[in-house]
Amino acid sequence: MSAIACAITDCDTVAVALEALDAGTRVHVGGLEVVLRQDLPKGHKFALAAHRPGEAVIKYGHPIGRATAAVAPGDWVHTHNLATALGGELDYVRRELREPAPFDAKGGRTWNGYLRVDGRAATRNEIWILPTVGCVGFTAEQAAREANARHAGRIDGVHAFAHPHGCSQLGDDLAGTRAVLAGLAANPNAAGVLLLGLGCESNQLAALAETVPEHARGKLRLLSAQGEGDEMAAAARLIDELVEESGAQRRVELPLSALTVGLKCGGSDAFSGLTANPLLGRFSDHLARAGGRVVLTEIPEIFGAEQALLDRAVDEATFRAAVEVINRFKRYFIDAGQPVSENPSPGNIAGGITTLEEKSLGAVQKAGSAPLAGVANYGEQALAAGVTLLEAPGNDAVSATALAAAGATVSLFTTGRGTPLGFPIPTLKIASNSALATAKPHWIDFDAGAALNGDLASIDESFLDRVLAIASGEPCAAERAGQRAIAIWKRGVTL
């Protein structure tokens, strides 16, 4: 790595500018000296070798697309001369067997969390109000505000999660809404849950309650607003019961293996795959070795990098389940008449990411190199120790909600451009570049930009300290700002 540019592997045919560079600048990358032929924005790519039209461009040691024009060494490589090579569904072949590494929790780090009666661990002790339908979303929020005023200091908080769905839905679309709400109700961070219905909606209270995993049903209270004279008084009474039952719980020392961590990226830039996502990858490997759970989602953002993930499957059944989720998601795009490569976003492109392959190869680094131990459909629980692949789209709010519904009790969210939004579980925002961390300290919990020039072992240890501190009760930036939201993946017609 030079002071101003780097290539990730020895076989890469492009390198990344670590700062804005002028045409004519001489750049040393490894043993090469390249003269830039155009001005280059920070985080953007330039060619280390000549490329013919149609020839693969290599970054992260893998193709990130094909040149659409002749490219000379020193040329800026971006949307004007590089395009995706992705297509539709594929017949994947499992190329190697990955045996799970033995867990090693001895001498590992600990954290302070709430141990639930079902054996799972929570990072927060909260009451959640989940509306069955959008019609009672504001009612839920009002009930939460009043309950927080009554019970300040007794629990970690009362939170309502409004959404616009639950009625005018049919079939699998309704089932998906019900499944993700049921998964949220089962999350360990919710010591008690009020399921608040209207009464006439498609997503009926009883059916939703039956969808909640059996081990979590004891913490539920159900309320139909149409069936009560004063629904606010009834909600207050039920919330008070839940606080009474859960308010006495205290944090205890727990092993690292008790953590279930969701992985997420949003507003990525070219540095995400160089700093923040590899940081999460090293953390994920550490947690997986300890026997903890790591949940990777955003299926469309692994297209182009999926084979490396599939090769990590621990057995044939896991491989086949992962292939089905990936190809099913591709069919979802194709059936809607859309290309599977309709990504990256405008913000990603401005930050230096050109194709979905490039974005995906950076994104999958969040899950490190640990074996793929499980696959969960949308709304299902992630039960396997190690890495689980979770079905959900790339949309920040939808995928972050799915992570909480899968049982994650803390989420790690890498970003190159920043976002203030928070989700049901503590969500640490990790900046890929120090400029973002400096500009938005009220958004960002950790600066991974230091990895460009710092000692990785020291950075990894500092990051682990930060994760465990927030898991143990220190509020993350989004929590301090009161940023809490959910979003549901709606896939069907609206009546």
TrEMBL record:
InterPro entries assigned: GD_AH_C, GD_AH_second, SAF, SAF_UxaA/GarD, UxaA_altronate/galactarate_dh
Annotated keywords: Hydrolase, Lyase
Alphabetized CDD domains for the sequence: SAF_AH_GD
Gene3D superfamilies: 2.30.130.110
Pfam family, one: GD_AH_second
Residues making up the signal peptide according to the UniProt record: none
Keyword Hydrolase: yes
SAF domain span: 12-83
UniProt-recorded Gene Ontology molecular function terms: hydrolase activity
Similarity section: Belongs to the UxaA family.
Protein name (Swiss-Prot/TrEMBL): UxaA family hydrolase
Organism: Novosphingobium tardum
